């Protein structure tokens, strides 16, 4: 484990959220899409389940995606602004089978505020641990997905959307065969 368990869970949710818009697709086109995304991520709490909520999550996604290519100062600016905008107040919580973890918003706060503070708290961990290099873009040529590298030896190069890692292996294999033939 590189970060605290709740930080890693939150970062995985952030990268999955960013990648719902990777490579020109829209994985959160409807409220139902958002429902299933949140269910998959185990993200509970109150919802308004309307278009405004969906739009606020789209907006948050854009801001978080920018952090993946931002330098440290810009990332700090985003994190601090997200925490300020949601009036974040960190509290340790235990619920739904999760052990102690930080919440920075009340359970009844708007979804995008709860998502943004969770993301911002996790990114604050990354930044102050000097680990921003773990936030990268996929190295596959035709892919613009975000990569979260939580491997001990920092070896993750390809995203988890589609088959980038597989495609890279196949391409390398074919190149070797062509060279041999
Ligand atoms: Zn929680
Ligand atoms: Zn990729």
From TrEMBL:
It holds the Pfam family ABATE. Residues 134-177 form the Zinc finger CGNR domain. Signal peptide: none annotated. Transmembrane segments: none annotated. Gene3D superfamilies: Jann2411-like domain (1.10.3300.10). It comes from the Bacteria. PANTHER family: BLL6575 PROTEIN. This is Zinc finger CGNR domain-containing protein.
